[in-house]
Amino acid sequence: MELKELVSRNEPRHTNNNSSSTLQSPSRISLRSQPMDPQDNLNEVVAPPPAYDTSKNSGLRHDYLEDRRSRGDQESLQQTGEPSQNAGVSSAPESASSVWGLSPMVYAIGYLIFFSFTGTVLRLAIECLTFYPGSPVNTCVLWANVGGSFLMGFLSEDQELFRIEDSHDRQSATKHKKTVPLFIGLTTGFCGSLTSFSTFIRDVFLALSNGLPVPLGSYSDLSLFGSVPAEASAPNGGFNFMAILGVLFTEIGLSLFGLTLGAHLAIGTSTWMPRLSQGWLRKVLDPIILILAVLSWIAVICLAALLPKGSQKVTLWSTEMWRGPVVFALIFAPLGTLARFFASMKLNARIVSFPLGTFVINVGGTMVLGMAYSLQHASVSGASVVGCQVLQGIMDGFCGCATTVSTWVLELSSLRKKHAYFYASLSVVVALCTLVLEIGSLKWTRGLVTPSCFRTT
């Protein structure tokens, strides 16, 4: 059965101030008939590289996300004002055909589902690994955010992995790789799922409310979800203000550093970087990943049905932790990734100087996390262990994958400074205010309790 027009693209958008105002009529993407368009509204695709190779070009900044979107609007229009029907086809002639006659959009969705699993598991594993007594930083999602931003910087700058065999031009190589489903899967799927904006803002709120987890005691007995001991709390609110600044500067600063470092690594290793065969990707890897994505999602749903109903001691590496909340996180992870993917395609091009899609999904995902966190930590008698695990799965899976830091910092590095500061400030302030309303109103009135699925007794 043929899949019908799934996504509406390119609603009326703003164009460059130097050109006449035009409206682009809507066009639709068929999952079978068209290849990926290099001018799709994903900022992982459209954004310029975060660094420039000074040995080949000027070290001065000469390209911004706003400029690329404005040029993309104009280039995709014919002189009649209608969208070009050949957009993306000429740049990636090999991508139009595949083993099963499916378009790269279908395979891109398969990659997104598959990499949402790997990104979620790796993020949770990094959080557990970096939560230990004596840790210099208590925001455990920091290193996942830095790692995802590092890989995003590398992939955005790299010109070799997805290069067409007979192409030696940087512009054509960059345009081609953005039509490859694997590139979409690695950037939007893996990097976006490995990083989490909602968890980052949750840690900002916990720093504000004196509730940031502190690793005290034996490593084998630690838990990320227990209550904070009184001896680990800050003396007064002034220290909480310093904690907020510490979390903000550490998370944003190191994530931006990771993005730049990844781009520099791509430049430094460009001479030795191998080239992936486009035929092998299209005929072998794409179908395999599509099958694995579907089977993996079915498998984790079946695993959830076999979960134990009781609650034992839940520590960082206990079987209860990884058979309970983590499995539910994997169930919800693809939903969050796909929500972010389609929201970005629908909304990101509405305002060229403000990535509306990323903003909406980051703030919306943080709101969902605040709701789930409040329900999980409310003092309700007879709370269900499975219900608690489902709520944790929503926070780590759906919210963790729907919200992203890697794309966010890529946008910050690509926008003009005044737009970047406004976008970053508004994202953090609005998302934090939602948690203050959702979680703060409960914490400062009735108080928060340890979730039923993480109680040690």
TrEMBL record:
Q: Does the keyword Coiled coil apply?
A: no
Which intervals carry biased composition (Polar residues)? 15-33, 75-93
Membrane topology per the entry is: Multi-pass membrane protein
The keyword Cell membrane appears for this protein: yes
Indicate where this protein resides in the cell: Cell membrane
| Record-level Gene Ontology MF annotations | fluoride transmembrane transporter activity
Please provide the record's keywords in A-Z order.
Cell membrane, Membrane, Transmembrane, Transmembrane helix
Q: Where is this region: Disordered?
A: 1-93
Q: Which domain of life is it from?
A: Eukaryota
Q: Which residues cross the membrane?
A: 105-126, 180-201, 241-267, 288-307, 322-342, 354-375, 420-437
Q: Where in the sequence does UniProt note compositional bias of the Basic and acidic residues kind?
A: 1-14, 60-74
Instruction: Name the Pfam families on file.
Output: CRCB
Q: State the GO CC annotations.
A: plasma membrane
Known catalysed reaction(s)? fluoride(in) = fluoride(out)
Function, as annotated: Fluoride channel required for the rapid expulsion of cytoplasmic fluoride.
Tell me the protein family, please: Belongs to the fluoride channel Fluc/FEX (TC 1.A.43) family.
Q: Indicate what this protein is called per its UniProt record.
A: CrcB-like protein-domain-containing protein
Please name the source species: Penicillium malachiteum
